[in-house]
Amino acid sequence: MIQCGILLITSLNYRIMNPIYLAYQGETHSISEWARKLGISRATVMRRLAERPGDVPNALRIPEGRTRYSDRGDKRTAAAWAKSLGLPVDEVTHRLKHGETVASIRKSRKMAPPEGRVWLDKEGRTLSAWARYLGISRQAVHKGFASRGHAYLRERVEARRYGRQS
After folding, report:
1. Other CB atoms within 10 Å distance of the CB of residue 93
2. How many helices and strands, by DSSP H and E, does the chain display?
3. Is 130:141 a contact under the CB 8 Å cutoff?
4. Three-class SS of residue 119?
5. pTM of structure
6. Do the beta carbons of residue 100 and residue 124 sit within 8 Å?
7. Could you tell me if residue 98 is left (phi over 0), alpha (psi between -120 and 50 degrees) or otherwise beta?
8. Quick check: 56 and 29 in contact, CB under 8 A?
9. What is the per-residue pLDDT for 16?
10. In contact, 95 and 81? CB cutoff 8 Å
11. How far is 27 from 165, CA to CA, in rounded Å?
12. How many CB atoms neighbour CB 91 within 10 A?
């Protein structure tokens, strides 16, 4: 058993029905909630507790040198936010470093046209190649992809395959 604040932990295994709670700095959360709140993985917290049982401050520390940006109680690195928003990492990093919030990026996001291939149903093509395949202009595909992403391509491809108008 591991003593963490006022809570006893009998096992380091993650259990959905009976989660492990940690008390730290006046807050009590499950390991998954702490991980999400701090922007680190649940596995990292579990590993740290296994290595140094009872050392909750060590288990919940954030690595040096990584800036975490929070939105709605969720803290993540710029790269993690970029992945969840579907935007390039360098764009999100630049915007965050220049004072924008994650919420403002989420509201104004438009997907940038990808550099390489866009994959749809195990088929990868550049946006220009998708335009040729669909028989529409490259600009129309870029504009549609920027506003709606893969959903735009999927609709157009299905319309072509099944003879529907879009």
Report:
1. 17
2. 9, 8
3. yes
4. strand
5. 0.39
6. no
7. alpha
8. no
9. 55
10. no
11. 56
12. 15
